[in-house]
Amino acid sequence: MLDYAALHCFSEVLRFGGFDKGAQALNLTQSAVSQKIKRLEQQVGGPVLIRTKPVTATPLGRQLLTHYQKVSVLEESLSAVTGLDTTAAPLSVAINNDVLATWFATVMNRFAAQRPNPVHVYNADQTQTRQLLQQGEVMACISQIGTPVTGGQSMLLGNMNYQLYASPAYINRYLGEHYTAEDVMAAPGLLYDEYDVVLLGDYQQSCLNMSPRLTTCHWYPSSHGFVNMAAEGVAWALLPTLQIAQEVAKGQLISLFPTKYLAVPLFWHWISLESEAMASLSKAVKEVAKEVLTLQQ
């Protein structure tokens, strides 16, 4: 039988990115944690961690992490029937920046009203979150990709709409009263990170009928900072319509092409488990998504 105390240590070391912080979270010495993980590696016949900064799991370690997460939530589900004294197991999820900046706090609020389980949110681009689920690092995610992972399920939540925005001062400075898509793309813009290149490229191709142009873009990896940069007149930005409703209402931001928007489909993925906690979280995600996302094709 696997040493579940050692598996718990392994999980915390991964969660906090190193032996020292993992040991602090466990209220153990770093030496004790190292010994537990060493015994675990001897038990399973191979390394479970790549000792870099931060530490990462080996393929074997990812399999063990997935197993441990499943066992934790399944034991919690059994407690109501068997009377086992179990703590509320944490649920790990991968969520992209724009969802975190707009509507996932509402999901957390509704879930917290029903369940005591901590939710550990990992931040990743919507094109990368499914990979974290597939690797066993999280138990659920919101992804732009709809195909379920092995042993999991998925459902379409709806579309998140993006438009190109700029401030009135920016328009006066760089574009003038009459401007074309070429004029806009030649003026300063914003990119969040390397993954945002794909999103902006999709907008340029599908909405503006032009090949991707990125050479005039600043890089600024902050969702709220993105809005501030656009409102300050530094650059145009491709933003979720959900995120900037107040700025638009106040006249701080203007849609550069009001009839053009990019609809990005979002899917909820989760590992198939008989878990009341996961069912409650999935229910909260679906309810809030239905209220804020669109379903147009």
Describe the structure.
By secondary structure, this protein is α/β, with parallel strands linked by helices. Among the domains are: 71 residues, Arc Repressor Mutant, subunit A (Orthogonal Bundle), CATH 1.10.10.10; 104 residues, Periplasmic binding protein-like II (D-Maltodextrin-Binding Protein, domain 2), CATH 3.40.190. Strands 3, 4, 5, 6, 9, 10 and 11 form a 7-stranded mixed β-sheet that branches. A two-stranded antiparallel sheet has the order 1-2. Helix 1 crosses helix 2, helix 2 packs across helix 3 and helix 6 crosses helix 13. The longest helix has 24 residues.
Q: Helix tally?
A: 13
**CATH topology title of the domain at 160-263:** D-Maltodextrin-Binding Protein, domain 2
C-alpha geometry: elongated
Q: Would you state the CATH class of the domain at 160-263?
A: Alpha Beta
| CATH-derived architecture of the domain at 160-263 | 3-Layer(aba) Sandwich
**Residues in helices, as a percent range:** 40-55%
The fraction of residues assigned to DSSP E strands is 15-25%
String of helices and strands: HHHEEHEHHEHEEHHEHEHEHEEH
Low-confidence stretches: none
Largest sheet: 7 strands, mixed
Radius of gyration: 22 Å
Would you tell me the overall average pLDDT?
89
Q: What is the tally of beta strands?
A: 11
Question: CATH superfamily name of the domain at 160-263?
Answer: Periplasmic binding protein-like II
Based on helices, strands and strand pairing, what is the structural class? Answer: alpha/beta
Write the layout of secondary structure elements.
Blueprint: H1 4-16, H2 19-26, H3 30-44, E1 49-50, E2 56-57, H4 59-82, E3 91-95, H5 97-102, H6 104-112, E4 119-123, H7 129-134, E5 140-143, E6 152-166, H8 168-175, H9 181-186, E7 189-191, H10 196-208, E8 217-219, H11 223-231, E9 237-240, H12 245-249, E10 254-255, E11 262-271, H13 276-292
Parallel strand pairs: 3-4, 3-5, 7-8
Antiparallel strand pairs: 1-2, 5-11, 6-9, 6-10, 6-11
